[in-house]
Structure formats: C-alpha cells, structure tokens
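Example 425.
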Amino acid sequence: PTRSDITYFGAGPALVSTDILEDAAKALINYHDTGLGIAEHSHRSQLATDIINQAKADLASCLDIPDDYEIIFMAGGGTGQFACVAYNFVGAWVARKQKEIFGVNGGDSTDPQLMQQLKEAVDKDLKMDYLVTGGWSQKASAEAERLFGSEHVNIVADSRETNAGKFGTIPDEATWKLSKGSAFVYLCDNETVDGVEYPAFPKSLQPGPDGEGPIVVADMSSNILTRKIQVKNYSAIFFGAQKNLGLTGLTVVVLKKSFLPPSISQPSVALMRYLALPIPPIIFQYETIAKNNSLYNTLSIFDVYVAGQVLKKLLRTYPNKIEGQQAISDQKAQIIYDAVEAFPEIYKIIPSKAVRSRINICFNVTKGGDVNAAEKAFLNEATAQGLTGLKGHRSLGGIRASNYNSVPLEGAEKLAKFIRTFATT
Ligand code: PLP
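Predicted structure in complex with pyridoxal-5'-phosphate:
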C-alpha cells in the first residue's frame, strides 16, 4: 500500500502529515539553499537558534503559554522525564527547605546543627505525590521510588484499588491522600495504554484564594495540543513530540520560571551527597538546559524544525488555534464512540464513561462470545480496508483507536462506518 491507502490509528509514534514530511525531506538534503541539510548544520548556528526560537514562539501561541514559563527542548522521551521531574522538583524542595532552615541568606551554611535539621526534614517530610491512573503514571511513580526510595513516594490514589485491580477509572477526589508540602503532585493527563483522560483539571489541586496551590506536574505526552489547557495550573508539563507534535526524538518541557534561577537554584552536589539524595545527570537538570536555550549539548534541530512546521500548520488551519483543533478532536472522538456505543452487545468500552479518553479509544469486541477470535477478525477486516494500527497495547489487548491530530475527520468517519458494518454483518 501507499501512504494514501492507509488511515493509521497507532498509539505512537503517530503519522506526520505528508506535506510536512515532503518539505522536511527536502530540508534534510539542502536547507534553504545553503548546500547543507538541516541535520548537518551546527546546532550553534544562527539558523538553528532561529528554528528553536520560532518553534518556542509558535508553541507558546498555540497553547497560550504565559511569559513566566520557559519552554525547554530535551532528549530522553517521556520516560526520561519520569526521572527529570523527580530530580528537579526534589532539588527545588531541598533548596526551599534550605532557605527556610538556614535563613534568607543561607545556602552555604556548614553549621552542623542546621545541616542535621535539614537532613531530618528530608527524612521526615520529603514526599513526591503520585496519582496512579494507568500504566504511564504507574511507571513514573516506580521511577521515583527507584531513584529516591519508596519512603519518599506517596501514592495519592491508585485506580486499581477500587476497580478490581484494573485501570479504567479515576478515584473520587474525596479519597485522595495528598501530602502536605510535597515536592510535587504528579498526574498523567491522558493514559495512552488504558484510555483514561482527566475530564478537567482536578478541583483539589486548584490554587486557593491566596493563589497558593500544590506544585502540579503533568505528563501530556498523548493529549498535548488536542485541547485547551490552563498552563498556569501546572508547574511543569512535559511531552514527547512523537504523537501530536512531530517526530520521535524530541521532548518538550514547559516549566514555570520560578523553578529556575534567579528564583531558585538546584542544591550543590556536596549538599545532595550529605543528604544522601541522588544527583541528576547534568543533561537532566532543567536549569542547565534552560540557561543554554536548550543547547547545552547537541539537540536534533531537524526534530525541532518538523515540530515547528506542525505548529505553523496548526496555526494556519485554525485561526482560533487550539480551540479549533479541540473542536475537531472532540468531534472525531464522538463519531468513533457513537459507533461503538450503538452496539453494546458487540463492543464493550473498557474505561468508565466519565473519564474515557478522547485520544486513545479502548474497547473490546465481544461479538459471538469469543473475544480473541472476534478481535482478530475485527483487526483483519479493518486492515483489509486500510484502517491500521488498531491493536490494543500488548499488556491490555483489545482494540485501541488513537485519535491524534494527524488522523483526519474523514479517517474517523471511515473507522466509525467500519465499526458499524462489522457489528451488523
Ligand atoms: N507517557 C505517556 C502518556 C506515553 O504515552 C508515553 C509513550 O507512549 C510515555 C510517557 C513514554 O514516552 P517515551 O516513549 O517518549 O519515553
């Protein structure tokens, strides 16, 4: 088959539109008549800096990112961020405690009593809060436990506990056990494997009337750029580019500047050693990368270029930016869910309705009673019609239709039609 024969619903990486790839292929050979391809130009060149700055500006425009946030480009994927988030926000927590205990001008005290006090605070009060609502937030919490020890990780809620050991719900906020003064509260906004998405920003994480609220960090790897978000609710948002922004290899962090110098600096290596806390690799230290405008080390400028082109296209296509994209994303999800829901005796949607994802639509095919055989037949027939990438995650099985931004409205309609025909024939 050729590209145009296929409508691809894979969970990631996702398709990038053909016009962008054709332009990118040319840029790889000879970028803007420079005689050199874009991946061959120095990342220190003005040309590279221009590409980075333009992509940052366009991302800020798409997502309405306020001025007091920094955009950082990194490598290491969403998985790298599981470690990064823990390192950097624990560092910020230690820096705040240090200031509290040593006084405003503190930072370099070697007073043994104050040092002991800080160590006791770490042992007793250092907590990272995790909301575990699916496979990805579970992995993130496991990484924090691996690096810092489980005594520093607080599971605020785990949806498996109230759902027969399975993901597919988000526990009632009234049952959440948030710790006081935690280094951060972590959530995965859209669980790609389990098809669970927060319908809105949780009420209990909202800032109070004084503007003070918990430090919230969100993994938006699979739903970034598919709906409007209030960036100011978060201290950090991260995502890999490979689903809604471009190609694999680029990771984006949107970070509140108050977590960067001059507001706050990561604690010294000596202090972290004294506190028996891990020291982040330098390429995982946000302040190092931010200070260098994402060029502390060699960054794939090609990936940033493609992301920039995707953002430009989004801005061109939707004058009302993310609202326009959200309307289409919601409409596509509705079309697919409507088709699935029309045949309750044939299909069973896995997550509960209130939290089901607009982006990763997960269901079982129960037609005829033999789920395995029915799903095999569903996948085979779908593939024959050019509807591919529908197999569920290897850990969960079932069908998963991923509704990323590169899936056109007609693609969603084609899938919905197939779902209806399969059920009735
Ligand atoms: N978080 C979410 C929600 C994801 O969907 C993924 C990948 O699919 C990851 C994290 C891991 O990202 P990466 O493969 O870029 O490390």
